[in-house]
């Protein structure tokens, strides 16, 4: 029998050997930053000095080096916000909008349609004069939101969104979250 890397998967992780950075480790197959640590074990997949969990918390992409970017435009880079323990999405002197209340579907709901309508509360902001800018909708297969299956930001779906077809699969648990942005591009929790 001849070994063919185009069809072989010697560690059984459903990733063909020619695409697998860790041929003998069924828990790892991808190393986004080529540091020798697979993404499952690597706490900083893009090696930008900010942990993936922190980047996800503030809506950044943990696979893109965005350390020198300035998410809130306050003159402090994202990595310096991380080091200082400050919020990289909050402009000094401005308050973030109130966190949206997720209405439907509720926690632990089962037998949801594959194209459910997601419902949330209306936009509100503690700063008088701040107005609505955008809503970001995210759906993930895990509660850390490190593997998104849906990520949409727009200004047309303020309190509801119907999940498009072919995004969700049967017999799968999903998590969803939403945040508002105000006219200063300040994000809610």
What does this structure look like?
The protein is mainly β and 189 residues long. The chain has a domain at 102-182. It is 7% helix and 18% strand. The protein contains two helices and six strands, in the order H-H-E-E-E-E-E-E. The protein has helices at 52-57, 78-84, and strands at 102-104, 117-120, 132-140, 148-154, 160-162, 175-182. The strands form two sheets. A three-stranded antiparallel beta sheet has the order 1-2-5, with no helix packed on it. The radius of gyration is 20 Å and the shape is flat. The mean pLDDT is 82.
* Spatial extent as radius of gyration: 20 Å
Helix/strand structural class: mainly beta
Strand order in the largest sheet: 1-2-5
Low-confidence blocks of residues: none
Q: Helical segment tally?
A: 2
Largest sheet: 3 strands, antiparallel
> What's the β-strand tally?
6
Helical percentage? under 10%
Q: What would the principal axes of the Cα set say about the shape?
A: flat
Strand proportion, as a percent range, falls in 15-25%
The whole-number mean of residue pLDDT values reads 82
How far the N terminus sits from the C terminus, by CA atoms, comes to 56 Å
Order of helices and strands: HHEEEEEE
